[in-house]
Specification:
By secondary structure, the protein is mainly alpha-helical. The chain contains 3 helices and 2 strands; from the N terminus they run H-H-E-E-H.
Length: about 110
Amino acid sequence: MTTAYAPTQMQPEGLPRQAAWGNMIDSALGTAMTYWQQVEQIKAMKNADGSGQKQQANTPELDNGAAVVVEPPKKPTAATKPAEPMLFGMSQKTVLMGAGAALVALLVLRK
C-alpha cells in the first residue's frame, strides 16, 4: 500500500524574508518616534500656558552660540616677566652654566 503525501508548497529561492534584526530596527524606530511625540506634546503644553516663553526669555543667548559660558583665555598682565627660554627641558641659564663648567674642567684636566 502506498501512502499519499500532501504536496509541500515550494517558495522561490530569492524570496526576501523579514529577519529578526528588521523587527528590532522597526521596534526601535517606533519607540523613538513615540518619545519624540511626547517631547513635542510637552513643548506644546508649555507654549500654551506661557511657561515656554518665560523659560526662553530667562535663558541667556550667548554671542558665540555656546550652550555653556566658557571663560575667555586670561591675558598676562604687564607686571609678569616673560618665561625663560628652555633648552633640553632646562632653563637656558642652567645649560650655559653647565657647559661653561664642563669646558673649565676639560681645560684643567688637559694640562
